Amino acid sequence: MRIIFFKWGNYDEDIILETLKSQGHFVTAFDAAGKTETDRTGNFGANSAEYELESLGGMQAEEMVSELVKEASRFHGEVFFSVDYFQYISLAAKKAGIYYYCWIHHLPQWNLYSNQAQFPCNRFFTYDHAHVRNMMQNNIKNVKYLSLAADRKLFAGASNGISGNMLTKYVADVSFVGNLYERGNNLFGNRSEERRVGKECRSRWS
Hints:
Elements: E1 2-7, H1 13-22, E2 26-31, E3 55-56, E4 59-60, H2 61-75, E5 79-83, H3 87-96, E6 99-104, E7 122-126, H4 129-137, E8 143-145, H5 164-170, E9 181-182, E10 185-186, H6 187-190, H7 193-205
Parallel strand pairs: 1-2, 1-5, 5-6, 6-7, 7-8
Antiparallel strand pairs: 3-4, 9-10
Helix pairs in contact: 2-3
């Protein structure tokens, strides 16, 4: 499958992109983070009609739709993919005649109940069974349950330094983690090498 991966700066985009490639898909990244400054929800405005699109920093949403359609044509794309839902990707997918797959990582997102969310090109995946039912009750079709995921390699060293007794106590085939990040305390990011190096540099020069 030929996938246009819409990147806006979510913490696990890179590992998802690499996983898709490892499964044999042809993937190109559309780096929206470098083009716009958004509230990272893809919102158009609370009272927007289908084409009353808000300004997204340096690029108007109409321009973003146009850029995405061009990218779909250039890459011969079959699917747009993003973490979380963006209305302008729905519009671009509709114009390009391809599908839009979005994996919902953050809730709530009011734009999931917009007019664009009802487009038949959309395919939604969300980690909350109640949210699946609620969307379907609101005439949002093609919604499936899909749990969240994380990079196993990133957390491989999380147990380093834990004593044998403590490690035995918490050994399990499956681990359920309620929250990996809070405002000002991003545990997921803190596990990455880049974040650790950045913190060390800041501490040396502060």
